[in-house]
Design brief:
By secondary structure, the protein is mainly beta. Helix content is 9%, strand content 31%.
Amino acid sequence: MFKMAQVFVYGTLKSGQPNNYRMLDAANGKAKLLARSRTVDSYPLVIATQYNIPFLLNVPGKGHRVQGEIYSVDEKMLNFLDWLEVCPQQYQRTLVKLEVDEWVGEGENNPKAGSIVEVFVYSTTTYKPEWLQNPTYENYNYKGDHGLEYIRREDRSTK
């Protein structure tokens, strides 16, 4: 029996962002928002490619303590996320330490604000070296003042 996994999302899968509907679609599996949190270590969160995709570069110690959300997901959703994130070619699913800002999930023995938890994250080591020169962000928002509009997968040309 598969135990529910916990995944940290920091980009287009967060609440209010263009791909959050994928987390809510039961056809993809089950996902439940548990907490708002931030990485314990700093990481470069950059926006890259012609599609303006947010990438968390697996380079601890650079960038910012990145803000995001923790979701509890079932095996079907985890497999869907692996597919969506083109894992392991584009992103790699690894463990990351997070500091809980606010736990919103229900249940007993929930971590308090300031607690440290370790969950899965989709970060990348397969980035182009010049991405390290891109501006880094603490909190991704597709409508941010960066002016880089995210191009949804279904809107990308097939060239």
